[in-house]
Amino acid sequence: MTTPLGKDLLGLEELTGEQITLILDTAEPFKEISERSIKKVPTLRGSTIVNLFFENSTRTRISFEFAEKRLSADTVNVAASGSSVAKGETLVDTARNLEAMRIDMVVIRHSSSGAARFLAQRIESNVINAGDGTHEHPTQALLDLLTLRDHFKKIAGLKVCICGDVLHSRVARSNIWGLQKLGAEVAVCGPRSLMPNAIDDFGVKVFSRIEEAIEWADALNVLRLQLERMQAGYIPSLREYNRVFGVTRERLERAPRDVLILHPGPMNRGVEIDSDVADGPHSVILNQVTNGVAIRMAVLYLLQGGRPDLASAAMGAAN
Amino acid sequence: MTHRSETILDAQAVERTLRRMADQIVESNGGADGLCIVGIQRRGVQLADRIVTYINESEKSAVPRGALDITLYRDDLQTVGPRPVVGATTLPGSIDGKYVVIVDDVLYTGRTIRAALDELADFGRPARIGLAVLIDRGGRELPIQPDFVGKKVNARTTDRVDVQVQEIDGSSGAILVSPKA
Q: What pLDDT, on the 0 to 100 scale, is given for residue A133?
């Protein structure tokens, strides 16, 4: 018996709709564990997990760490600064050294697209992609899907618009693939300079005006506008970005229906999203954070491999 | 391989047995006060519901009921791998100081009950924990014994005991499935 997801979770592009649904369904009972007074189950007792973060992250790293600890795994955090990576060690050498200490899983965040796959092909441990360059951030998209499903009770047929810097966003890519596999209609909206040239190949609707996107959508997933983009000349100024593409209360009030607001964080209040929207009644931004822990617990659980040689004997003694 | 199935309990017998077990549970507790009935996912939950209904009928009580999914407490994740569908765990408020009776359909190796005891301990400290099973098929691998038994059968390791409940299977009963020699 192989694990239902295979050895690694590298992205949503290579998963089927059934596998994605399985992760979401598995996350449901894990939500309850975080509400208990003893927030811990012994499921991954004895497993060692390394969180290898070559890029800054607060939310994702803490969320993975909570998920690991609530499943009773032993965790080690390695940040690029202050480790031998700063001395010029390669990614593979770092991972092989960790593996020589008998670890079971690696959660990796890296600034290069494809870093997670590169690592997964070279080590035996399970690899979970926690964001690689501008490629994918699968657990973020999964928690977005779970939050949408909580609210709308289904994903198929939903109209979801991803707004902002789609060009540089791994969250956008993972979301597009995940939403499409579950039968949602996907659109993107943002300045032309922040859209990939090949956006038409994704099979999504493209809006150039935020007003049109709001009129069309059931939910908006508002991406963070990375402030470096302004220096790089992608947009003229933050103020102008807010004036043209900002998700504001005035714009939402003109929508024909209530539009659910998601944001992967960290937010630039007053740039891509206004404070009264982020804190407003249709914002599920904090539900996303809560769901993130449950989703990551589900992924860790489903990647945990069984031993086929022992499985049949143990299955026979299921009661 | 062909199989031979033999009915251990039919629908009527299941009802009768569960009524008797409900009475025994109340008797051993000296009433319905402080009782809490917890079913193990999946079919234990429906059996627990039935038992609670019978207790409440006869005692005019409102005994709390809960559901326990022990998947995350299993000792065979490293061997069998993850079981795809994990059910819900819902316990009715605090179990501290209560007489908690765990209800399951079939008792075999005892490993499920071991896991259930571990899980209950994470929720509180009951005054006492009891075990009620519809079928005890023998074959224990751990020192665990039931307090309330619907029916005892001697099943061989190659046999399978299947309990069916209306809500999941559309019919109610218990059958012994053995490979034909």
A: 93
Model confidence, pTM: 0.89
In this prediction, residue A37 carries a pLDDT of 87
Residue contact B109–A319, C-beta within 8 A? yes
Nearest to B109 among A30, A33, A317 (CB): A317
What's the confidence (pLDDT) of residue A2? Answer: 61
Give the one of B77, B111, B137 whose C-beta lies nearest to A304's C-beta: B77
B112 touching A (Cβ < 8 Å): yes
Q: How far is it, in rounded angstroms, from Cα B104 to Cα B100?
A: 13
ipTM of the complex: 0.79
